[in-house]
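Task 17 of the worksheet. Students: predict the tertiary structure of the chain below and write it out as structure tokens. Keep your answer in the requested format; marks are given for formatting as well as content.
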Amino acid sequence: MRRFTRLLLFVVALPLGAQQSTPVLTAPLPTDPKVKIGTLPNGIRYYIRKNARPEKRAELRLVVNAGSVLENENQLGYAHFLEHTAFNGTTNFAKNDLVKYLQSIGVRFGPDLNAYTSFDQTVYILPVPTDTAAIVEKGFQILEDWAHGQRFDSTEVVNERGVVREEWRGNKGAGERMLHKILPVALKGSRYAERLPIGTESSIMRANPSQLRRFYADWYRPDLMAVIAVGDFDPASIEAQIKRHFSRLKPVAHERARTEYPVPDNAAPLVAIATDKEATSSQVQVTFKTPAQPTRTVGDYRRDLMAELYTSMLNSRFNEIAQKPDAPFLGAGSSKGQFLARATEGFTLGAAVKDGGIERGLEALLTEARRVDQFGYLQSELDRAKQNMLRAYERANAERDKTNSGAFVEEYIGNYLEHEAIPGVEKEYELVQQLLPTITLADVNAAASRWITDENRVVVATAPEKSDAKVPSVAELLAVFDRTAKAPVTAYVENVSGDALVAKLPAAGRITGQRAIPGVDVTEWTLSNGARVLVKPTDFKADEILFSAYANGGTSLAADPDFMSASLASQIVTLSGVGTLSRVDLGKKLAGKAVQVVPSVSETTEGLTGSASPKDLETLFQLAHLYFTAPRLDTAALQAFRNQVGPFIANRGSDPDQVFRDTVQVTMGQHSFRTRPVTAATFAEVDADKALAFYRARFANAGNFTFVFVGNVDTTALRPLVERYLASLPATGSKETWRDVSSGAPRGVVSRTVRKGIEPKATTLMMFTGPFTFTPENRVALRGLVDYMQIKLLETLREKLGGTYSPNVGGAGSRIPRAEYSIQVSYSSSPENVDVLAPTVLAFIDTLKRVGPTAADVEKVRAQTLRAHETALKQNGYWLTNIVGRDQAGEPMAGFLDDASIKAMTPA
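Model answer:
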């Protein structure tokens, strides 16, 4: 439940009137009656909830209350290794048969079927279709096999060592090296510092069946397991299957104690400082540790609401400071939550800073926290925070019957592992309505005095290792605390603009034409200024309307000397606010509203994207109107942006992955002017005035634009808003389009080698390009080819050769500026394996061209594609993407509803 509240920050709200009576604070929080919770005689807990979002699907989980913190010294990384062996042979599934079966019913390995291991838990993730009882039954058989049927075949364990080592290798880099320097200090005396889930290379390569079996026998036992099932099914049938499968597990006779390891208290501050030659940013954070407080009563829930309000208001202040040209940090934030161990929480203040600015950044964090402690927040700040919080819960409650099953699963995992209350969103909304009016400014202001203490402080600072940027010593960081404690602070002064979002309503235009687009229930309006509007009402979400506007042109119409200014035009406008309001003032003005609009300019188009609650739809229209007619330039915000981007540009050459990406960009762009990597020199070409002028030019002619709305939209209510805010936009009567300024992909075979980096780690990228006939049928075939290659290269490079952890195949066909296809194959490996894996990929592709895929593999691809399509058809975003794409391509809009081309896939 607290997991739910953490996810609902920064949305919008209702008036705080007509509230119900205040509940008794000592009353226990109820459990959502829509979830069935039970415990089998052997100790296994289970959670069952019927939920039809998405339809014909179920989310199954096996949750094991055991992770890496429980490993013996000779088992480092084995909790995670078990996660791998679960897919390599069980009682009812031989090597790889489990993955192959699930692929055959449309479940993808990785995006769907997966697992994760952390310090304290291991969770197996299995989404399954519920079309037939047999599929669901087999899903529970898989969960049961994971729970007590892993085989640990010696050959498979040895083979899997390579895969796990490549996963370990993939984590190597500046962040990982600095983490190993930080943990022994920040977690001094804690077992967590010694038990990173991935383990060590030596322990991975020593993994053997006997040690894995030992961990499995010790910790995979009924009293440490839960089974969770949420989906479109009959709960009684599901409960019967859970009982049938999991009652077979036997309790352990002499079980080991499941110790909850602590993070010890510390009287003196713990200060960890880490630098690295490949690090690209400087950061500092301080955490004040406190004992964890369970949320079991209404009073506990009220306490958590106060914490959310406190941190959201502090984050708003940090955001306001970051917009200033002389800001002491590039960005900052605060949070309150678990500090690794379940028994420990932390209040954390953190900031990204300029290189050499760690002390100044830490001082600013502490000063703002002290300012709140000394003077408190303002009532206006609390009012906005309450509005945002209440609106967030109102929206969640409105979507209670349209919530994805995965969200419920996460709540139940938290309940089982961390005893988080799960009263359900309806009850939470009721509690928020009742409790928010009782939370006073004094209540919230008092929170910091309990969180910020002299003991249990942990300070962490990280920075690039270079000679021209000072990194403070431990003594210098501690001196910041003393200096800040003695320095005078003044009360926060809030400046709130009194300007209305729209000072004067525009004179309305007219809808001059209307037609129904067959097969999709889309209405098209033609406006008096030449613009078009496409409207698709849906019932997929109760409180969501998605919005897109687009026109041809983009940065392709900018002259080369103005390209950098044009490419950042929409970002500069967004940072500046809109109309008479700065970005900070705009955020305050929109408190209590669920709405956003963001302008964008790509190479060939310009437009807007956004979303809104139906009740805030007029505000979306007002923002859209203003981004056309009243963009602004905020020089202070622009300077802050330059300050934020500067360190990234200065350090990007230290990051091997960034150097690799830059090389790919330049190579594929054939060293053209517009594909240059961003450097201090190219960024200096940005002229804010030219950027604003280019933006205004691209949005000067609304007659070139098409506006699309998808969601819970009432066309009758929409009509006057369209006429008022869109039909009134200026238009010139001319038509513009993009121009081809790209050089296209290089022809022939091009090979580039980048030698960069400290770690023994290689990344390989292969790109295949060529002409493409841009039709719906060819796009389906190309997507099928990409999915097929993903399946087979996973089998070959990972499962057969153990040479990489996660090969990735991507691809798409483009229509503009020229019709081309592109397929990318990428993977990481050891440098020694580069010359082994690359020829393997090329040989696979050669065989594919000569022989083609098998019918069985095509069936896997077909099943996966059909399943994904079936689910996507109930999502507003999928409809918006297809309406926009097919409208731009001039294709029949109803075509994407037809799955005939998917069903017609053949090996040819």
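Marker's comment: The first helix runs from residue 2 to 6. The chain has four domains: 2-20+263-402+418-486, 43-246, 511-726, 762-903.
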